[in-house]
Specification:
five-stranded mixed beta sheet; alpha+beta; 6 helices; 16 strands; elongated; five-stranded antiparallel beta sheet; single chain
Length: about 240
Amino acid sequence: MIKDALQYLVGLGNKEIKQVNGQDYATGNVQLITEPIGEPIHVQSLSGLVGYLKSNFDSTGEVMIHVKDPTTVIAFSTINSDVKRNRWIVSDAFVPDFQFDRFYNAEAFNIKLQSCFLRNEDSQIVLKVVGNIREENVQTIGDDGISQSVTAKTGIAQVGDVKVPNPIMVAPYRTFTEVEQPESKFVFRMRDGAECALFEADGGAWQLEAMDNIKDYLSSELEELIQDGKVHIIA
C-alpha cells in the first residue's frame, strides 16, 4: 500500500504534455492548456474606440466591430486555436438617467426634459405645459384618451389652457453623443399631484435607427482601415 502511494505521488510530479488534434494536453488530471486572451479596454465614446483602432497599439490584425445595441460597441479579433476571441476594446455609451413609464413631479420632469432630451417643437410644447401647471383643489380634467388638457382647478390646474398632442415626437439622449439621437413617439400623461410621465410608443424602432447611425459613423471614421480589409463592421 505504501509503495502504491509513493508511485502515485511520483506520478503527480511527472506529467507529460501531449498533443491531440493540434491542442496540448497534460497527462494525469488532464486539463486543456488554452491560448491567453487579453483583457479588453473600456471606454465611453465612439471616438475612443476609433482612436484605439487607428493607433494599432496592440497590433490587433483584422478586427470585427459589433454594434451590439445603441449603447454598446465591441471590437474583437478572429478566433484563435481554442475558437475564442480577443475582445480588444468595449465602448459603453454614457447616457443621462431618465426612466420612462414612471411619473415624476412637475419640477423634476421639467429639469429632466431639458437636460436629457434634445430640444424640438414637441418638447417645447410639453415644457410649456409642465412649466405652467400648479396643484390646486380637484374639480375636473379634460381627457379624450389621446390628448389631455386641464380645464379647471382639478388636481392639476393649467395656466393658458394648452392642449398636449399625443403621441409626441421627442429625442432623448439614448445613444453615443457622436451620432444623431433618434426621434421617436412617446405618450405624455399627467395625473393628480402635478405628476408627469412619458411612455415609449414606437415598439423599439429607435434602437435600429441608433445602431445604423453608429455603424455609419464608424464606417466614415474608419474608412481607410475598412478599405484595407483590417476592419469589418456588423450591426
